[in-house]
Design goal:
It is built from 4 helices and 9 strands, in the order E-H-E-H-E-E-E-H-E-E-E-E-H. By secondary structure, it is α/β, with parallel strands linked by helices. A 6-stranded mixed β-sheet has the order 4-3-2-5-6-7, with helices on both faces. It has a 3-stranded antiparallel β-sheet with strand order 1-9-8. Helix 3 links the parallel strand 5 and strand 6. It starts with 6 loop residues before the first strand and ends with a helix. Bound molecules: inosinic acid. The site of inosinic acid (IMP) has 18 residues, from strand 3, strand 5, helix 3 and strand 8.
């Protein structure tokens, strides 16, 4: 069985993602200048492809850093526990920070991240997320840049995983139920 056989449907195509990444970057280019010198924080692992594509369309000077957060076990529902697996290399005090997320689901992970960042005293903080699942929100979170809103389905591809797999798919898709059931 190939990886693609596990996919029930494509929700957002590769071409749609490419187009949206460009318009999202344009929204950000209209806000920041070189003088702001923001630092984009890629939340690993899910946001790695989004960040890689997105950063290449930004025209203002910026820096990148990475933080790995774990909120899910190997399943499709949150364990409720948020942990920092890898912390930033940079000091963000007094800096303009842009958090880059893959998906905001219940909002618990982002709430944790924003609280954690507030303690580091950045000059400003904005959030860019590729996907948002508003119907699942448990905590309201401020989202400044949203790629796509998705329905209440577990999605994979373009950085997002199920049990660490499927991140390499170039589109956002939904898995066949038997993949979860047989897991
Ligand atoms: P939240 O704390 O419920 O908002 O979940 C946020 C994190 O859970 C995201 O950064 C993802 O890593 C993961 N997640 C939530 N929904 C999905 C999904 O549909 N597919 C893959 N990962 C997901």
């Amino acid at each position: 069985m190939s990886l693609l056989d596990d996919v029930e449907k494509v929700l957002i195509s590769e071409a749609e993602i490419k187009e949206r990444v460009v318009t999202l970057a344009a929204e950000m280019n209209a806000i920041y200048t070189d003088d702001d010198l923001p630092i984009l924080i890629c939340i690993l692992k899910g946001a790695f492809l989004f960040l890689a594509d997105f950063t290449r369309h930004l025209t203002f000077r910026h820096e990148l850093d990475f933080m790995e957060i774990s909120s899910y076990g190997r399943g499709t529902t949150s364990t409720g526990t948020v942990r920092i697996l890898l912390d930033l290399a940079s000091d963000v005090q007094g800096r303009n920070v842009i958090i880059v997320e893959d998906i905001v689901d219940t909002g618990n992970t982002l709430t944790y991240i924003l609280r954690n960042f507030a303690a580091r005293r950045p000059a400003s903080i904005r959030v860019a997320t590729l996907l948002s699942k508003p119907s699942r929100r448990q905590v309201e979170v401020p989202l400044d840049f949203v790629g796509f809103e998705v329905p209440d389905e577990f999605v994979i591809g373009y950085g997002l995983d199920f049990a660490e797999q499927y991140r390499n798919l170039p589109f956002i898709g939904v898995l066949k139920p038997e993949v979860y059931q047989n897991f």
